[in-house]
Design a protein that fits this description.
Blueprint: H1 2-19, E1 22-26, E2 29-30, E3 36-40, E4 42-43, E5 49-52, E6 63-67, E7 72-84, E8 88-95, E9 98-101, E10 107-115, E11 117-127, E12 131-141, E13 144-154, H2 159-167, E14 172-175, E15 188-194, E16 197-203
Parallel strand pairs: 3-13, 3-16
Antiparallel strand pairs: 1-2, 1-6, 4-5, 5-11, 6-11, 7-10, 7-12, 8-9, 8-11, 12-13, 14-15, 15-16
Length: about 200
C-alpha cells in the first residue's frame, strides 16, 4: 500500500511539473496564458521609429519564453498578425536564433530549440503610419501550448484608446489598485475590461 501511495505521489508530481514546462515572461514577470503585451513605438538604434519585443540595447528585458526546470527540447511557434495599420518598411521575427522577414505573410510557423531562455524577437521596423498592429504568438513544446498577444502602437493615443477606436467598442483600463486610467498608461500591469471580457496587459 505504501509503495502504491509513493508511486501515485511521484506520478502526481511528474504530471504537475510537466503541465508547467514553460512560460512566457515580459520584463521578468510571468504572463498568464493569453495575456497581452503592449509596446509603444520608439526610435531604434538606427533612428527609425520601430516597435521591438526585445530592444537591442536591452535584449533580455523584453518578451521571452522560459523553460522551467531542466526541460530542453524542440518546439514550434506560430505568429499570426490579425491587424496592421503601422505601414512598417519590414516585419521581422526571430525565435531560437533564426530571423525570418515576414514580407506580406500574416501567419508563419517555425521550429525552434527550447532550453532556458529563448528571446521572442518580433520587430516592426521603420514605422510610417500611426495606428496599431495586433499579433498572436502561440508556442508548443511537447503537448503543452501557451499564447501571448502582442500589440504594437504608434500615435498620440494610448493602446486602449486605439483598441476602442479600431474595434468600435467601449474599453476600460484600471491599474492594479482598481483606479481607472485616462490617457496613455505609464509602464506597468493593467486590467482591461471589454464588455464581459477581462484581461491583464503589460505596458512597456
Amino acid at each position: 500500500m505504501k509503495k502504491i501511495f509513493t508511486l501515485c505521489m511521484g506520478l502526481t508530481f511528474a504530471l504537475s511539473s510537466w503541465a508547467q514546462g514553460f512560460v512566457f515572461q515580459f520584463q521578468g514577470k510571468n504572463l498568464a496564458d493569453g495575456e497581452t503585451v503592449v509596446i509603444a513605438a520608439e526610435e531604434d538604434m538606427f533612428g527609425d521609429l520601430s516597435c521591438e519585443t526585445n530592444n537591442a540595447m536591452n535584449p533580455n528585458d523584453g518578451l521571452v519564453l522560459r523553460t522551467l526546470g531542466s526541460m530542453a527540447s524542440s518546439g514550434s511557434a506560430t505568429l499570426q498578425i490579425t491587424s496592421n495599420d503601422l505601414n512598417p518598411s519590414s516585419l521581422q521575427w526571430c525565435m531560437g536564433g533564426a530571423c525570418v522577414p515576414l514580407g506580406s505573410q500574416t501567419s508563419l510557423t517555425k521550429q525552434f530549440s527550447a532550453g532556458g531562455v529563448t528571446l521572442v524577437q518580433f520587430d516592426a521596423i521603420d514605422i510610417r503610419s500611426e495606428g496599431l498592429l495586433t499579433a498572436t504568438l502561440r508556442a508548443t513544446i511537447g503537448l503543452e501550448s501557451h499564447t501571448v498577444n502582442i500589440h504594437f502602437v504608434n500615435g498620440d493615443y494610448d493602446s486602449i484608446g486605439s483598441l476602442q477606436a479600431s474595434e468600435g467598442r467601449s474599453v476600460t483600463c484600471r491599474d492594479l489598485n482598481g483606479r481607472e486610467v485616462q490617457g496613455r498608461p505609464l509602464p506597468g500591469i493593467y486590467v482591461v475590461t471589454d464588455g464581459t471580457s477581462v484581461r491583464k496587459i503589460a505596458v512597456k
